[in-house]
Amino acid sequence: MAINEDLNCIYEDLTHRLNHPYVHQYLSEPVIDGDKLLVYYLLFRENGKYKDIGEYVSSVMFAEVWAGYS
User: Does residue 14 contact residue 62 with C-beta atoms inside 8 Å?
Assistant: First the structure.
């Protein structure tokens, strides 16, 4: 898969996770930083030890978005 396709899949997964009713109780409209998404993706990809990079990037970005509101 190309980087853009991977990033789109990760973005969609992250958007789905952030669209949960429990999350909406505490966050207004979440903002996903596309630059951070790309940087985390490239860092995990460069390491080469991770099988499902999307899961790691999505989890880190979820924490980033959540931390931005606390």
Answer: yes
Taking every pair of Cα atoms in the chain, the longest distance, rounded to a whole number of angstroms, is 37
Q: What is the mean pLDDT of residues 36-46?
A: 92
Which amino acid, residue 4?
A: N
DSSP track, 33-57: -HHHHHHHHHHHHHH---S-HHHHH
CB atoms within 10 A of CB 8: 12
pTM score: 0.80
Q: Give me the domain span that covers residue 46.
A: 3-67
Domain count across the chain: 1
